[in-house]
Each structure stands twice: as C-alpha cells, then as structure tokens.
Amino acid sequence: MKNILNKISIVLVCYNSSFKLKKFIKNIPFETKILLxxxxxxxxxxxxxxxxxxxxxxxxxxxGYGSSINFASKKIDTPYFLVVQPDVTGINKKSLLxxxxxxxxxxxxxxxxxxxxxxxxKKGHFQTDTxxxxxxxxxxHGSTMFFNKNVFNKVxxxxxxIFLYWEETDYTRRAKKKGYKAYQLNLVKVKHEKGKxxxxxxxxxxxxxxxxxxxxFIWSKFYYFKKHYSFFLASLYFFPIIIRIxxxxxxxxxxxxxxxxxxxxxxxxxxNSILGNKSHMRxxxx
Length: 286
Hints:
Elements: H1 2-5, E1 8-14, H2 18-25, E2 33-38, H3 44-49, E3 55-59, H4 65-75, E4 80-84, E5 88-89, H5 93-105, E6 112-117, E7 134-137, E8 144-148, H6 149-154, H7 167-177, E9 182-192, H8 203-229, H9 231-251, H10 258-274
C-alpha cells in the first residue's frame, strides 16, 4: 500500500486558499507527494509547509488553471497525479488507492478519471449512472481529475490559452481523438464547495470574484466552440446569446447595480473572445 501511495502526486492550484489548504492536507497520507502551485504570491505557504518532506511549494505567474497544471506536470516524478481544488472534500488514502486500482483495471488507457460528486445537482458537476462502479463519460469536472502522466503528455496537457473554465472539456475532446476515454469512478465520493477556494474579505471582493468567473466562463466557451467547430458555427450558436446580453444591458443600464456589472462582464468576455483577444481579465483588474 505504501508503494502505491508513492506512485501518486497531488497537485493543488491555489489563489488565496491557505485556509482551505491546511484543512485539506490533513487528510492526505504523508507517503503521497503534494505540489502546491500558488498564483497569489502567498509566501506564508512556504513558511507553513516548507518543513514537510512530502510537500513542495511553487510560486507561479497567474496565467491560468490549465497552465498551472501543465507547469506542475513537469515537476512530477510519479507515474500518476491527482489534480484537486482545495475546496473539495473526500480525498484521502482510500480514494487515492481506488483511483490507482481502477487506473490499473483500465490498463492505464484513459484520458482522465473523475469522482462521483455527492452534490452533483450543482450546475457544472457532471454525473452519470451511479449503478456502475466505473462508467465512461463525455467529460469530467475540473475540480478533481486523476491522470496517468504518460497519457497527459501524449495529449499535450491543457490548452495554455484558456485561463479558466472549459480547459477539461477541451482536454477530454482532444484526448478522445487520440483514442483515450474519460471515466467517472463512482467508488470515490467527494463534495465540492464550488467557488469557496478563494478567500474574500468582504462583499465587494466577493462580487468582483463572481464577475471574474462570469467573464472567463463565456470567453472560454466561445473559444472552445470556435476551436472545435469553426468561427462561423460558434458565431451562429452565440448570436441569440449576444442578443439576450445586450437586451439585459439596456434594461439594467440605469440601475448601475450588480446585475448591470455582471452582464457587462459577460459581454466584455464574449466580445474579447470573438475578437480573438487573450483571456486577459484578472482579479486585480476588476
């Protein structure tokens, strides 16, 4: 069992998440290596975790979730790694062993394995028939992803152009073209407190963070559709969405409240993606 846990690394991409990291890491066996990729220059992490032999802290420019995972994959010296967000609960020795066990049952021939989300009713958490121990699925949720490093490299990792959202969808689509399928392992059960990994100190910061998510979600969605279906078909699909956004902006224009700001961020993210501009929005720029 100890030898198995030595074969798995855990990658935690964090941004102002120290309060969640400390709680999460308590459940991880010391035999398993942990890589903390911090995008917020939180130097207290190195002070707090620096003396733990199984934990390495890396500070990286804040250029995206997928980019941070690509960076971590080059630092990993184990054949398998689990990417998980600090606000996920349910990852422990038992779940790590289950991921490894079913990786071997699949003969390491898969793109990614995701867990069963106990709170799958939340938007964005994919779920399939739970009567199966493991089931092929179209896509996994990016908060918890188990990889065979060799396959991850063959698929060329994540698209570095995507800052946030749709990176896992793009990855699984490219992997499937190479013959690698995605799976959901229902024997691993987790909960994801969506949007709770980043600490905000007041309602103003909380609103800025929500707007950041809105901006990047629609930027990435259009980018994904354009990349895989062509600019023309993406534009046709998004045309009614553009009309709805512009209509809402007119309605909320004189309100000048949070609703107007949210729709403006949605429009700005979509407009920049249509124009082919980079996903440049960051928390400090909101």
